[in-house]
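[job 4471] stage=fold_predict status=RUNNING
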Amino acid sequence: MVLDHAILGLLHRCPLTGHELKKAFDRSIRHAWTADQSHIYRVLGRPAAQRYVTFESVPQEGRPNRKVYHIAPRGREELVRWLASEEARRATFRRPYLAHLFFASLLPNEQVLKKLRDDTSRWGCSLSEYEELSEQSLEGAKESPSRERFFWYLTVDYELWMMRAYLDWLDITIDQIAQGDPDSDGWSRTFPSMRPPPSGTGPSASDEMPTQAGSKGVS
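[job 4471] inference complete, writing structure tokens
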């Protein structure tokens, strides 16, 4: 599971208490995966976690001992195995809003447009919040080694691209429904992604492939 391995990844960076793990989530990987305190403790309490994580009790004057978790050698091996596997990349992206839109022909255009415009407003607010969150995340990344910081930045960049792309798609979809005629067989041709490429674009038969030296072949 992603949460299990995210915890191993954070512990690989440094030993942490359960409370510190939650704070580490919030200032680092929260943009990609969320977890509340109870989820974290639940994972740490699983029998499987006991093979990958160890802990030490650190005395505190006048307070209960702190339980500090460390990644065990087997935990690091499991983290590397997971990173090299296809498990996470096989995850299915479920988009309920597309299932709604698929059957939206049952609704009048005005009702569909209202739902899409509500989505635009909601996602616009979400993007603003995420941009603020990403700034906080990138600020926290400054303390990490350069290589870790590079891959950290990539995850933030991905989320920003996806959210902006969805908002662009919403704008196009709203425009098509507002101006198009769903009862017309040619309606789909108005979508940019479904339009045939303009004639003359793409390679022509007279184009020659360059040689390995970078110049055109000589007869």
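[job 4471] summary: The longest strand covers residues 63-71.
[job 4471] exit 0
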